[in-house]
Design goal:
Protein name: Claudin
Number of strands: 5
Family: Belongs to the claudin family.
Largest sheet: 5 strands, antiparallel
CATH class: Mainly Alpha
Order of helices and strands: HEEEEHHEH
GO molecular function, one term: structural molecule activity
Number of helices: 4
Radius of gyration: 20 Å
Organism: Thryothorus ludovicianus (Carolina wren)
Shape: elongated
Function: Claudins function as major constituents of the tight junction complexes that regulate the permeability of epithelia.
Structural class: alpha+beta
Distance between the termini: 10 Å
Strand order of the largest sheet: 4-3-2-1-5
Number of domains: 1
Strand content: 5-15%
Length: 188
Amino acid sequence: MSAALQVTAFGLALLSTLFLLLATCTDCWMVNADDSLEVSHKCRGLWRECVTNMQDGVRTCDQYDSILADHSVKIVVTRTLMITADLLAGLALATLVLGLDCITFLKEDPCAKLKMCYGAGVILGAGSILGLIGSVWYAVDVYVERAMLVSHNIFLGVHYDFGWSCWLGMAGSTGCLVASVLLTCCLY
């Protein structure tokens, strides 16, 4: 039972970590959601803003200024939290691989392997909480920005909704949290 639970948690953690990495690297955290006929589709991300022409499919991206340049708090905090979550999830995966029962590392000391799995769960939990905070922070900021424009009757011709990268970050963080719970609470 313990080995099956470890492998299940590892599979979920691996998939969730890939989701976190994709969310961090991709550029569609918020998308324009105008109901009129659009000639272009705009995505904003943590690293660049891309516009896709709907008629011919040509995509152009504008890189943000240097990473050290002044950016909005939303982008800086989300970048920091997502990169930290990625690093912690990667460290947890490496620790979990070494702690799996099916791996011959420390085969003569099952107690140490169990502690490694537990430690991987704790690290994964910390990373998942940081990823959730980063994803939700960005989503709430997008919502507040849109609500402020609506409350002041300001219409700029386009408004933004959450993009697939934001949802991917939330899904990856939630999956890491579930894997962490499996490793820390259910393994014993």
